[in-house]
Structures are given as structure tokens and as C-alpha cells.
Amino acid sequence: MSERVTIKSIARDLGISHMTVSRALSGHPSVLKETREAVQNRARELGYVKHAAANVMRGQTTRIVGLLLPNIVNEFYARFANTMALACEAQSLQLIIHLTGDEAGAERQALARLNEVQAQGVVMVPVPGSDGAMTLKPRPMSVVQLIRQSGADAAPTILVDDDQALQGAVAHLAEKGHRAIAYIGADSRLSSGQSRLASFRAGLERAGVAERPELLFTGTPTAEIGAQRMRQVLGDGAATALVCGGVEISNGALSAMMAAGVSPTGPFDLVGYGDPSFYAWIGGGLTTIGVPVERLAHKAVELMVAASPPPRIHRFEAALIVRPGSPPG
Amino acid sequence: MSERVTIKSIARDLGISHMTVSRALSGHPSVLKETREAVQNRARELGYVKHAAANVMRGQTTRIVGLLLPNIVNEFYARFANTMALACEAQSLQLIIHLTGDEAGAERQALARLNEVQAQGVVMVPVPGSDGAMTLKPRPMSVVQLIRQSGADAAPTILVDDDQALQGAVAHLAEKGHRAIAYIGADSRLSSGQSRLASFRAGLERAGVAERPELLFTGTPTAEIGAQRMRQVLGDGAATALVCGGVEISNGALSAMMAAGVSPTGPFDLVGYGDPSFYAWIGGGLTTIGVPVERLAHKAVELMVAASPPPRIHRFEAALIVRPGSPPG
DNA sequence: GTGAAAGCGCTAACAA
DNA sequence: TTGTTAGCGCTTTCAC
């Protein structure tokens, strides 16, 4: 265990002032070329690494940003994180990922920790029912909200505009002859829960399909809820098709169908939400609502690094992806 | 934009010494209860957040750890990251994720950045052909290598013991009558590339199936290579089954099959590597080599936070997961 | 071209 | 119980 290598230790080693070392290492012009080279060589030999904390203390901004997600297993979030990580890498930002599990306490703590390390900004999927970043009294961090809009918060927000896609999903199912179409989505604590349900109903009306209140399910947007409601729907057999209103719910519903041995593209038609790669491979291709994840991620980074982004809402349009499904047989 | 709230500003505000504030906030016993409460209240009102960098400067260790992955879209890595993030959260560690894209430059830079922020440790999937953490001359970080063993590095390493599973995969295919079994895996730059190929060949020999050198493919362990080789295999039609030797290759090979409209569970049998949830749903269930991701992740965190873990190799056994596939018909 | 001093926020050690 | 001092690693400012 050798001592930590600092500019002072290098200076001592070379018998010069630590300031000369500092200047030499940061490429300051007024340093004798030979001095500079001597310093740089010695630094390399000794394995000097700049102490980021020291710079932070001097008021310099960190190159750290945060990302708060419910989880990172769902391919939607995984792809978002992947794109964002690459975008950060490109800007030499370091990305700290906190998983909230959609739990308010975890969210609060994650924000606190990011504040402590003086993170430059944070992109977050707000936990349902939380006040979001409002809990950050002194907000040195710039906050970008993703997917969901939380409370009265005045942070820029990136939303998915899925109204047309959801209505299209209903129209698509109606065209295929379905008249008993179920829906599983987030409940009204989430702005997206409200709007998606509204879009679904609008779709029913536009398609001339009667609304069946007993086939409308809302709850917390988790895979478990998705699976549970789907089992219910399959169990009582009243519905012949189903539309999902969220990426977690979609995966949950799908897994419940597969577990029950029911094809999601068979006579019972499922329309998923989000477009993980494997949806294309399930039973001849699952029809789903595609979300432009990569574009969301780039916009998120762009907003986060912006000096002081106005608290605007940025919408990205989702699109219905119709797939053939099982060949009729 | 108000001034930054520090213990000194609170002290000024209350007309006391900043040390008293420090003690009050950190729960030091010898502070008058009323003083402490006054300080804590004021701190809360003002929105004080501790400055992590200041503590780091004083030699305190950061609560930051790093994770280096090729990507985070592959469900294997995503699940690893998810589990590790939760484990870190539980130990109030912050997790910085760097994606290397299996590129040496990115790896080097990521390690450098983690060093700069004084990360406590790092879990990394070494880039093929790199010297791994050897480039870290002064290693204040504890390093844990994952999945692959890199160079002559003396860091603890977590490996998957897939010998039996791979041999089992070949035996399984042989039992189904296959005599022309192809293999796609990583090349010999990777220790795992070598050992998996060896296991595959041992499996052939044990099953009494002749080895066909022209059906053995190795390359960089990416989805692209997997897809490309798979197209080749399907194109020339010499093989009737294929075993994958890596999670990326497996996904790539699968996507190429699906794109070609060939069922991976049909007459041509694919054995995958890794067990993302959807493998169970593809064509009646894809037979694959299951890896205990969650256990790997927990071990990784355990080793990383350990004082000075011996550079041991920790092996976790993979298991062949046989699935029915399409019903014969 | 080089050096000395000061200060970022915090706490250990000593002083009162 | 409370206060003062010093120093962690670094760069900006001013002197030489």
C-alpha cells in the first residue's frame, strides 16, 4: 500500500512547487517544456490520478448525473438506460443508477444521495403518488421527469403521446371482429394512467364498440398486477381481446397468458405496450404500441445538461405496430 | 438561487460555532439537547445537504462503486445490474454504470473515471483481450472480475461453470437424433471461449457424435457475430442443430433464426445460452443453458465490499434447462 | 517561469 | 458543552 500520489507528493519528489506540477499537468502554457515533460513522466510512473473531490470542493461541478428507474430488467427501461449511458459516456458524464421499485422512500433517498454527491442532474421516472423532485428544497440539480408527470413539479417532462396509438389499437381489434375488449392500465394516481384509460375509451367509442366497465382494470403499474388481472380476464372468459396500458403491465399480462398456455396472437388478441425485441417473435409476432425509447433518452440527456431548461412538456408519439400473429389455421 | 447551505452558514445563522453544528448534525453526544434540536430544525428548514466531497477529501471512503458491462440491454446483464443495484441500495452504496461495448478504450476510461471519484470498488466484465484492471497501477479500488478472466490479473473472479451444461446440451441434441451439431462461441482470446469450445467438443465425443470442424464458429462474443454465423449455418444447411456459447451470441443467433422464419424448436434445434424470461415463450419453449445470475450478483457485491478478498476464482454452476419446444406435428 | 497563500466543506484534536 | 485550529487536494490570485 503506497501513499496516495498527489501533486504535492510529485512536487516533493521532483523538488519543485506543487503549483508547477499542477500547471504542468493541466497543460498551462507558462511552464518550461522540460519541466512539464519531467512532471508528466513522473506522474505517469507514479500512477497519479486527479482527485475529483478536490475539484468539486472548489465549486467545480461534478460530471455525475443520476437515473432513477423502477427497475432495469424491463427491456423498455433497459434500453433507455443503455442509450442514456452511451450518451453520457459521450459527454464524459458518469451515470449513477438508482432503482426505486416505484417506492417513495427509495426515491427520496436516491435523490438525497445524488444531492450529496453534487450530481449535476437527474432523470427520473417519478414514483406513483410522490411529489417528485419537490422534496428537493435547494435544487442545484436539474431534474428531468420521464414518462410520468408528478405533482405540481415544475421540471421539464418527457411524455409519450400514445393517444392515437391506443385508439388505433382498439380500432385494430374492432376490425378483427372483437366486441369485448378488456384494458389493464395504471390507476388515476398517474397522469399517464388517466390519459391512457381515456384514450382507450375514446377508441372504443370511435370504433363503435360498447364499453364494458367490468373489463376495465387499473392498479399499480407492475408486472404482478398485469399478470393478476390477465388471469382474471382469462378466467371469467368475458373478453376476447385486451389492450395493455404500460410496459410493466404488458410484460406481466403476457407472462400470465403464456403460463396459461393461451396464445396472445391466437383467437384471444393481446395488444402489448412497448416493444422489446422478443415481442416480434411471440406466436408469429405480437401487435404492440411502440415507444421511441432511444429518442426519449437522447432528449432526456439533452434537457439535463441544458443550462436551465424551461419546465416544458416534451411529447414523443407512440405508434401501433401491427404484426401478423399466428397464421390463421 | 440561494447560497449553498453549509454548516458554517447555519452556524452564522444561529450565532454559534460551525463545530457545534457539525456535532449536532452527526449526533455527537456532548451537545445540549436544545442546541441540537435548534440546529437540526434550522438545517431542515434551510435544506442542508451534507457535502460528500468534503468527507472524501478527509480520507473518508466514498460509498460509490462501479459496474462495467458490455451493454445493459441483454437480459443477462440487465438482471445482473438489477440485482446488484438492489444489493448496493441495501448497503447504501451508489452504483455507477459504465458501458464498455467490449471496447478496450472505453474500459480504460471508465476505470480511470472511477478512480478519480475514489470509487470503493468495481465489478467488471473484462473486455476481450484487455489486460483488465492491471492498468490500474495504484489500486485503491477493489476489483471483481465477472464472467471472464482477464490477463494475469490477481483480482477475485466470478466464473460460470458451464462444462456439464454444455456437454448436457450436446447429449440432449444427440438423443433427439442430431448428428450434425454446430457451435457458435467466443474465440480463444477469452478464457471462457476456450473452455466452452472444449466442453462442446467433449460433449460431442462423449455422445459419440463426430466433430465437424466446419460447423465450429468462434468470434467476438456479440449478437452481430451470433446472427451472422447463424445465417451462415442456416444457409449452407449442413447442420441440423446448434449450441450457443454465450449470452450475446445466443440472442443474435435466435434473432437471425426468427428473421429467417426458422423455428428454433422445430426440426432445427437451437440450444441457447442464458435464460431471459422470453426464452420460455419462444416456439413452445427454448432449451437453454441457465445461469444463476442473481447469485453471481450477490457474490460480486459481497466480494467487492470485503476488506481484501483473496484473488480466488468463484464458480457457479450453469444448468441445462430442457423445454418441450413445439409439439411434434 | 515559478512559488506562496488562501480557501472550497468538513471533522479530529486540542483548548477553554 | 462549546469553540478554535488545522488540513485533506486542488486551483485561482497575486507576488517574485
Automatic annotation (TrEMBL), chains A, B:
Organism whose genome encodes this protein: Meridianimarinicoccus marinus
Keywords attached to this entry: DNA-binding, Transcription, Transcription regulation
PROSITE patterns membership: HTH_LACI_2
Keyword set includes Thylakoid: no
GO-annotated molecular function: DNA binding
Xref: PANTHER family: HTH-TYPE TRANSCRIPTIONAL REGULATOR GALS (PTHR30146:SF109), LACI-RELATED TRANSCRIPTIONAL REPRESSOR (PTHR30146)
Protein name (database record): LacI family DNA-binding transcriptional regulator
Upper classification of the organism: Bacteria, Pseudomonadati, Pseudomonadota, Alphaproteobacteria, Rhodobacterales
Pfam families cross-referenced by the UniProt entry: LacI, Peripla_BP_3
CDD domains listed in its UniProt record: HTH_LacI, PBP1_LacI_sugar_binding-like
The HTH lacI-type domain, residue ranges: 5-59
Superkingdom, natural source: Bacteria
